[in-house]
Amino acid sequence: MNELLSLEDARAQVLAAIPAALPAEMVALSDSLGRVLAADVAAATDLPPWDNSAMDGYAIRARDVAGATEVAPVLLRVAGEVAAGSASETAVIPGLALRIATGAPMPPGADAVVAVEQTTPLAADGSAGERGREATGPLPARIRVHEATMPGRNVRRRASDLQLGRTVLGAGRAIGPAELAIIAAGSIARMAVHARPRVAVLSTGDELRGAGSALGAAGIPDSNGPALVALCAAAGAEAHHVGIAPDRLEPTLELLRSAVGDADLVIVSGGVSVGPYDVVRGAFAQVGTVDLWRAAIQPGKPFAFGTAPRGEHRPGPPVLLFGLPGNPVSVFVTFEVFVRPALRRLAGRTSDALLRPVDAAVLEEAVTKSIGRRAFLRVAALRDPATGAPVRDAAGRVRVALAGGQESHQLSALAAADGLAVVPESVAGLPAGAGVELWWLDRP
Ligand code: AMP
Ligand code: MG
After folding, report:
1. What is the pTM of this model?
2. What is the span of the domain harbouring residue 257?
């Protein structure tokens, strides 16, 4: 078995096995959330497509109201109105105004909009209505304008947001709600995105039973299978659990072969040590190449990584094979450290977006760990009882405490944790008050 491999070296080897993201496919706007653009998208329209009003008010010529003040308003005749969704054919000539709704196209001749609040409506008989009367009431015959303005005031210029033919978002951008909004605003109905990684999850162990099944004298529930499917889904992949393999080579190999034929990435949990029942490494070796690593992380060693050739009818990088340790907390940590970045690269994320953003935390209590391995402690943030917000110290560090027992089978601490606190290889522990890196985990 190899020497302890640093986390960075191990992760670099994983990423080096992914020369390119998955191939592109065209999707409709409504299916694009969470995907990563495989090509730049260009605006199919100017936005706004035409000059329009930023206010409910009156489209006017700024020159006509040059001298208007509160006590000496200027009188304009109201020649009609422009509603959102209609374009006016009436031009605003000297002395005229057109009532206009927010977002309606500017009529020809007008160069500014005066807000309805700065006007007083006059009926045909000359009687004055309420100052700033709502813009939807009966159309007045004339208005008094109480303030001077400038050309362009309250006008949203054509193409001031997006320009026809220009790039709206570049290749490599992940699509969240704001990205989806601007793509829709650019009138783009379909776009090229990278395929979503397809993951096959396989649990191994004679002791494993599906949740809800009788456990008998020596059975335990399979938690890694459902957990890995969920972790993959949260990372934007499409995962399914292909089953539980007993601790024998043939059935493990059979499930692995069918998984490799169909998936971009295969995750097997359990059976990666070097005991007589640890058959995963042998199975990987029969479908591709494999390395067994003792990564210098806690929890998490040992760990198997390999690749298998992808069928010729399926273009893309080789199928990635991950053999994670069986202990449930080791599964979470090794997924975070190695598998999630690989899934993000397959999905088209750029190198600067593969890892979680790191926050700073301060330990509320002393912690211990193995020297020579980087520890990922399950910690909970202290929270403000009124707002639920994490509490930070004067230096801005999140105050964290251990979320429970730190052994690698203890899922209760993981379920109570907000994140992972990272303690370096060089120390056997840290005192209360020590600063650590914090990786926030996805919470529902
Ligand atoms: P292994 O890596 O196969 O030696 O397993 C290490 C520990 O993890 C053992 O206590 C296993 O019972 C447990 N384990 C392995 N796979 C699972 C699983 N899918 N769900 C829950 N515990 C598991
Ligand atoms: Mg096992």
Report:
1. 0.93
2. 7-23+196-353
